[in-house]
C-alpha cells in the first residue's frame, strides 16, 4: 500500500514540505513495510499436504492470530516462517528476505517461542539465558540476566535446572529468552498454554508492549477470546488453508491481506 502526500500552503504563508516537493516535480511517497509475504506456499510431509496455497501479506507492526483445530497447520506455518521448515512449493519473505535463499537474514529478525518454551533441561534458568545472550550476541551481565528472569517471575528459580520446572515455568523461561532477542518479528505458538492466570496476564502485557514498540506478532492460539483483545487480524486455518474472520462473538473478516 502506497500513500502519496499532496501539499498545500501553511496558514502563515510558508510552503509545506510536500508543496515544495510538488513544485520541484518530485513525488513524496511512503511505502508501508511488509513484514511477511507468502505466495502460493505449500508444505508437505511425504504425501500429506499440511499447508495448501498460502497467500498472505502482513504489514509491519501488526498482530495476527492464527486459530484452528489441532493438526490444522498452525505450527507448521510458524515453523516455515521461522525457517525451521522449508516450503515444498511457492515462495515467501520476511522483511524482504527470501525464506529459502536468505534464511540467515530472516532468522536475525525473528524470535520463535514454541508451545513448550524451547528450553534446555540440563541447564539452569540463568545458564539458558547466558546461552541465549551469546547466540543473540548480547553482552549482558549476570545481573541483567537475573533481572530478565525476575521480569517473568523466575528470580527464585534462577539457579535451578530447567528440567525440574513445571510446564508454566518453562514457558516463562522461553519468554525471557524471547525478550533477549529484541526481534522485529515474534512467532508465538500457543503462548497462553500451560500458564496460570498471572502468566497469561504477563503474556497480555508483553503483547501490548510489542504493539506499542511496533513489533510484528504472528501468534497461534486456542484462547481466541483473550487473543482478540490484541489482534489486528485473525486467520482461521482449516485443512491447511487460510481464511479470515472468526466464529467468536467478535466475528468479522479483518482484511488480513491489507493488514
CATH superfamily of the largest domain: P-loop containing nucleotide triphosphate hydrolases
Spatial ordering of strands, largest sheet: 8-9-10-5-11-12
Summarize model confidence as the mean pLDDT.
86
What is the count of β-strands? Answer: 12
Order of helices and strands: EHEEEEHEEHEHHHEHEHEE
CATH architecture of the largest domain: 3-Layer(aba) Sandwich
How much helix is in the residues? 25-40%
* N- and C-termini, Cα separation: 10 Å
Global shape: globular
- pLDDT < 50 runs, ≥5 residues: 1-30, 246-259
Question: Radius of gyration over alpha carbons?
Answer: 21 Å
CATH topology of the largest domain: Rossmann fold
Any idea of the CATH class of the largest domain?
Answer: Alpha Beta
Write the layout of secondary structure elements.
Elements: E1 2-4, H1 17-23, E2 29-31, E3 34-45, E4 48-59, E5 63-67, H2 74-81, E6 89-94, E7 97-98, H3 103-108, E8 110-113, H4 125-135, H5 142-151, H6 167-181, E9 185-189, H7 197-212, E10 216-220, H8 224-227, E11 233-238, E12 241-244
Helix pairs in contact: 4-5, 4-6
Amino acid at each position: 500500500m502506497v500513500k502519496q502526500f499532496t501539499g498545500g500552503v501553511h496558514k502563515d504563508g510558508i510552503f509545506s514540505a510536500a508543496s515544495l516537493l510538488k513544485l520541484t516535480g518530485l513525488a513524496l511517497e511512503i511505502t508501508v513495510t511488509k513484514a511477511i509475504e507468502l505466495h502460493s506456499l505449500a508444505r508437505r510431509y511425504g504425501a500429506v499436504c499440511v499447508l495448501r496455497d498460502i497467500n498472505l501479506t502482513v504489514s509491519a507492526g501488526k498482530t495476527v492470530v492464527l486459530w484452528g483445530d489441532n493438526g490444522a497447520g498452525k505450527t507448521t506455518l510458524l515453523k516455515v516462517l521461522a525457517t525451521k521448515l522449508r516450503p515444498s512449493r511457492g515462495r515467501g519473505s520476511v522483511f524482504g528476505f527470501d525464506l529459502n535463499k536468505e534464511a540467515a537474514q530472516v532468522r536475525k529478525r525473528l524470535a520463535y517461542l514454541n508451545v513448550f518454551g524451547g528450553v534446555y533441561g540440563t541447564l539452569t534458568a540463568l545458564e539458558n539465558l547466558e546461552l541465549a545472550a551469546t547466540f543473540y550476541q548480547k553482552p549482558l551481565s549476570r545481573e541483567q540476566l537475573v533481572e530478565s528472569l525476575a521480569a517473568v517471575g523466575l528470580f527464585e528459580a534462577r539457579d535451578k535446572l530447567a528440567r525440574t520446572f513445571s510446564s508454566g515455568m518453562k514457558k516463562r523461561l522461553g519468554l525471557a529468552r524471547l525478550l533477549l532477542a529484541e526481534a522485529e518479528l515474534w512467532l508465538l505458538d500457543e503462548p497462553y498454554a500451560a500458564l496460570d492466570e498471572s502468566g497469561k496476564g504477563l503474556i497480555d502485557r508483553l503483547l501490548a508492549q510489542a504493539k506499542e514498540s511496533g513489533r510484528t506478532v504472528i501468534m497461534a492460539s486456542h484462547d481466541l477470546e483473550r487473543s482478540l483483545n490484541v489482534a489486528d487480524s485473525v486467520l482461521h486455518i482449516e485443512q491447511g488453508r487460510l481464511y479470515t474472520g472468526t466464529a467468536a462473538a467478535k466475528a468479522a473478516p479483518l482484511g488480513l491481506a491489507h493488514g
